[in-house]
Each structure stands twice: as C-alpha cells, then as structure tokens.
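Exercise 3.2. Students should predict the tertiary structure of the chain below and write it as structure tokens, then compare their answer with the key that follows.

Predict this chain's 3D structure.
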Amino acid sequence: MPTTEHILLESDDRDLPDLAHPRTVHARLVLRSRLRKRVIQLEIIDYYYLSIRSRSPTNLLEYVLDLRFVNTPRRSRHVAWRWIIASLLLIALPPAVAAGIDYSATSWWHHHWPVVCVTVIGGWVLATLVATYRTTETVSLFSVCGAARLLEFTGGLGTFRIARLFIAKLSAHIRLAAGARRRTKTEHLRDEMREHLRLKEIGVLSAEEYEQSKARILKQHSPAKKTAPAVRASMRR
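Answer key:
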C-alpha cells in the first residue's frame, strides 16, 4: 500500500465545530485592507479552532483551522524605501523652484518653472500613493510539519497594531492545542496529512501546495530518516 494512503487511513477523525454556530467564541478580529479591497474576519472558537471568513471582489472563502496543526503566527513588514525616498525628494523640489522664481527679476508667468512645479507635485502624489500601497504588514499562518500556508493577510501600516492583542491570544490557544496532539510524532504527522487533504478539498490549499506539504511530511515520516545515522555508523565500522 502506498505510504500516503497508509498515513491517511490511520489518521483520527475530529468533528470540526460549526462555522456558523460555534459553542464558544474566545476572540474576534476583523481586518480590512481598503487598497486591496479585502476583508477578513477571524474568530478563535471552541478552544482549539480558528474560523476564517475572507472576502474580496473575486473570492469568498470560509473555513475552519484545527490549531493542533498550526504554528504561531508570523509577521513581516515590507517598507517601500525607494518610493518613500523619491516622495521626499520630489516634495523638496517645489519650494526650491518657488524660491528661484521669487528671486528672479522676470515675472513668474514668463517662466516655464510653474509647469515643472505642477509636474513635480503630480509626481510626488503618485510616488506617495505607490509608497503607501507597497509598504505593507503581513500576518501569516503555516502548518507545523508541512509548512503549508494556511492563511495570509496583507494590509497597510497599522495592521500589526490592530491585530496585536488577537495574535497574542491566538498564540496562547495554539500552545493550548499543542497539548491535545497525538502522543507520538508519527501519529501527529498522519493527522496533519489528513488536515492538509481536507484544506485542499475545500480550496484553501492548491494542488501544488498540497503536494509540497505532503512531501515535507513524508520526509519526516519516513523510517529511512530515522535509520540513516545507524546505517552510517555501521558503514564506518
């Protein structure tokens, strides 16, 4: 029997809580990204689960994550330094142009500088907008052993501040859920494989992401990895 089937058949079944009617809601967070036109609602429910409702102009996705198979949240920030520097340089040019016109003996309407000044201001507005759009804060969730991306939300500056308390509580519930994992690593790997298959079937993971996570889990599950050191030791003898 193939290894993947063996893992799936020996996984345990756990009934997921009803997304619409959880027994207990421990924390709730709504994140909005107006520039990217995306809204995501997160709820920690029934101690060991995270419900996710993600809405964008092209997609609506609702699902539940079992926190036994989730790593602590990752946060990353990208700052568009080049566009910020360009914006600062452009905003410094109009005052210099205005000062030059003021000291000139020729009337200002005889200069071509006003047109240049308006163009520079337009460029500054564009650079500022691009810098604002490209400076982002991202919150991500990955699975424990398969390292599959289970959730990713990218917003503007301030996303971390809004999500700080929720992330702290989510991290605490992830640690709590870790205590409810199966007793051995082999059993946990089998359960995580089943969780990845469930997420693939509901459209959270693509086929490629599923295959990559499966390969990582099988690499850790393979008994060859455990026996390799012993084989190398016997070869040295």
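Discussion points: Helices lie at 3-9, 81-103, 113-134, 159-178, 185-201, 207-221, 223-236. The chain has seven helices and seven strands.
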